Structure formats: C-alpha cells, structure tokens
Amino acid sequence: MSRITSDEHRVKTIVVRPVAGNRSRAIVQLGPLRLPAALGRSGRTSRKREGDGATPIAAMPLLYGFLRGDRLCAPASGLSLRRIRPSMLWCDAPGHPSYNRLVRAPFRPSHEEMQRSDELYDICLVLDWNVTSRRRHCGSAIFFHLARPGYEPTAGCIAVARRDMLRILPHLRRGTTVRVL
Question: Where is each L,D-TPase catalytic domain found (predicted)?
C-alpha cells in the first residue's frame, strides 16, 4: 500500500485521470497514492454549463470544506473545515445574485442542501470552479466529496470513498490544486 511520506506531506496538486471505457470513473493521484473516484454522469467537459452533469476539465484550487460534525469527528487537515448546519444551502440558480455561493434557509431559488440525508457531503471540499470569478450558467457546486457505493456518477463533482478522503485530508491545504485531465 502506498503512503505519502513526510517529504510529500503538503500535496500541491491532486491529479484526476479518467478511466478508459467509463466516462464517469477516474483515478485520483496524490504523490504515489492512486485512488478510485467517481466523476459526473456526463463524464468530463472543457465547456462546463449549469446542469450538464459533467466534471470540468480544469485546474481548481481547494478553497475550504464542510464537515458533518454530528456524524464524525473533525479529521486532521490543513484545510479549513466548517461544520454543516441545517440552514446551509448552496445556490445553483444562475440568475440569482448568490449563484454558486453558500446561502441560508429559507431560500426559494434553486439550491443544494449541504446537510444531506445521505453521506455524500459528510466531508465536502469546495473547489474553485466558478467561485472566485463567477460567470452565470457556467456551473455551480463543484465539490470534492464522498462517493456513493460502487462509485456511482456524480452531478459533476469528484467523489472518493470515505476511507480515502480521511487518508488524504491531512495532506491538503487551501490552494492545493485539483487538476482534472
């Protein structure tokens, strides 16, 4: 089993490579580690659009993350992790001023609930896709989160198993780049 050594403790880039023959599967590579992952149901795209179900082909820095503190203890990480509250939502309505931003309930426009009933967002890292420099209709809520059983496709995010996320979190910092090839 590969390990990240102390020399590699601060991972600068995570590479996400597609798996041949399955557009919604990938291999996530951090130094010597290679981990299975799920991608968007439509595979990857260089022309990301809201609701297309594709994972953007891009280099996306990690900004911060969210954690379901009621389900697990805060893992070691150099990345800031905020505890998810029931009122936390993520706006995915392109015409709204809060598009691709965290908002609070009640909120009528289209949104994602951060405190999901499943475990996908128990650890949810925000990728800088259309966040610091927003463009309407170019995609929202592109996260690095936990995978469904069998690595079922996402809506455009990158997802890994909980055990793998817990292995890599200590090596991540704000600005670590996730590069989807």
Answer: 14-181
**Token pair belonging to 145:** 């989160």
Rounded distance, CA 84 to CA 81, Å? 9
Q: Coil, helix or strand for 5?
A: coil
Predicted pLDDT at 4: 55
**Cross-strand partners of 29:** 15, 34
95-131: pLDDT as tens digits = 999 999 999 999 999 999 999 999 999 999 999 999 9
| Residues annotated as catalytic (active site), given as ranges | 145, 157
Show the tokens assigned to 73.
């203890």
Q: Which two structure tokens, joined as six digits, stand for 29?
A: 């590579």
Residue 154 has what DSSP assignment? Answer: B
What number of residues does the chain have?
A: 181
Name the nearest CA neighbour of 53 among 154, 152, 159, 158: 154
* C-alpha closest to that of 41 among 165, 140, 159: 159
Residues 133 and 128: their CA atoms lie apart, in Å, by: 9
Q: What is the DSSP string of 39-73?
A: -BTT-EESS--TTS--EE-SEEEEEEEEE-TTTSP
